[in-house]
Amino acid sequence: LWLERRSENEDQRIERRDRGVLLGSGFVGGEGLLGVAIAGVAFAQGARPQGFGTDWLGPPWLAGGVSFLAFCLFAAWFVGRVRKRT
Questions:
Q1: Per-residue pLDDT, 1
Q2: Who contacts 7 (Cβ-Cβ below 8 Å, separation ≥6)?
């Protein structure tokens, strides 16, 4: 959005938007492939690979609470940003 607004002309704006979409698609695709690879390792070992998960955060209720709080903060920021535009 920021780079798109700073574009000097329409062609540059379209190119920047397309590059952003391509980058985002690459992130989503790469994350999916990595998830499949981790699942393959877990299946081969018969257990979750060491170092993955939320065990480092403490008890499960804490991990869930931190995740929920982070989601709520992000959602509030996003809604505020969208309301400013309209």
A1: 60
A2: 13, 16
* Helix segments in 1-86, DSSP class H: 2-5, 10-45, 60-85
Residue 69: how many CA atoms within 13 Å on its side-chain side? 6
Q: What pLDDT, on a 0 to 100 scale, did the predictor assign at position 7?
A: 73
pTM to 2 decimal places? 0.52
Amino acid at 78: F
Residues in the chain predicted with pLDDT less than 70, given as ranges, are: 1-4, 52, 54, 85-86
CA-closest candidate to residue 14, choices 30, 3, 29, 26: 3
Residue 48 CB partners (closer than 8 Å, separation 6+): 42
| Domain positions in the chain | 1-52, 54-86
